[in-house]
Amino acid sequence: MRALVITRFSGPAALAVQDVPEPAPKPGQTLVRVSAGGLNFADLMASKGGYPGTPPPPLIAGREFSGVEESTGRRVMGYAQWAAFAEKTAAYSNLLWPVPDHWTDEQAAAFPVNFFTAYLLYWQAGMTASEAERPVEGRAPSPVRAERSSAPRVLIQAAAGGVGTAAVQIGRLLGVEMYGTSSSDEKLARVTELGLDHGINYKRNDYQEAVMNFTRGEGVDAVFEMLGGEHTAKSLRCLRDFGRVIQYGTATGRQPQLDVRALYAKSASVQGLWLTYLSQKREIMEPAWQQLSAWISERKLAPQIGQVFPLARAAQAYQLLEDGKNYGKVVLKITM
What we know:
InterPro entries: ADH-like_C, ADH-like_N, ER, GroES-like_sf, NAD(P)-bd_dom_sf
Strand content: 25-35%
Number of helices: 12
Number of domains: 2
Number of strands: 16
CATH architecture of the largest domain: 3-Layer(aba) Sandwich
CATH superfamily of the largest domain: NAD(P)-binding Rossmann-like Domain
Helix content: 25-40%
Protein name: Alcohol dehydrogenase, zinc-binding protein
Organism: Candidatus Sulfotelmatobacter kueseliae
Radius of gyration: 19 Å
GO molecular function: NADPH binding; oxidoreductase activity, acting on NAD(P)H
Keywords: NADP, Oxidoreductase
Order of helices and strands: EEEHEEEEEHHHEHEHEHEHEHEHHEHE
Largest sheet: 7 strands, mixed
């Protein structure tokens, strides 16, 4: 079968479509004939050897896919750690979900990582109202819901990306006041149509100053932060009292920096979110899926797809992501 292989850790140029053996399912796994794959920033990091736990090359790339489960014939979308960008993949049954009838294969491939991550960001910020909000050992209750009667405020970094566009759609349903950053007015206009309240072009405006101006000096309750470096410290300074920066990525490639004085001054916190870890916890994933699937059935969620590339042009798709020129999700068409 054909698969996209990371031949060495040197980025998009080292990707190659090769013939590889079909996968042998382990206990708890099932075979899926893959139609499309969703490209994530984690895939770009993995191609450079910068994603935690990446096996040594050569390895099959990809962690998100849609296709047909061979044993049942049902259309599914799924999440894996590796080997999703192939004509067949072995997937764990608990990380497969049915594809809505009104969605294309490309839309289904764009769902799992973006929408579970976005929903769990709100859950971790204490802003969801479903049973997923119930207490979990080691997770402190949020003072935001307890102390504020007005709509909570969130700053979404990279609001025009895959997770960003998902977070805007979910935030609108949760009644959150949303501020979002992007590199272009065109992208911000598209995200505004999804429900973003305040767009900030970070190339023309300092987003910390913009947030403080929008909120009359108060700040936001949470920042969904995936840039790393100095942006973690800057995001802290965008918070109001008891606010949370939730770090779920480091797109700049730099370790997050902290402003400890801002932590002290606002009784703020910095938390991490890693879908790889949370995806193994049924008590978190199942309630999240219950809420997401309810919204899907009501046609209130729609994955935003920027471009679709054939598997043979995967290197160009990865490069588009690295250059930050994508809107929403970049999808690979595995089988034509």
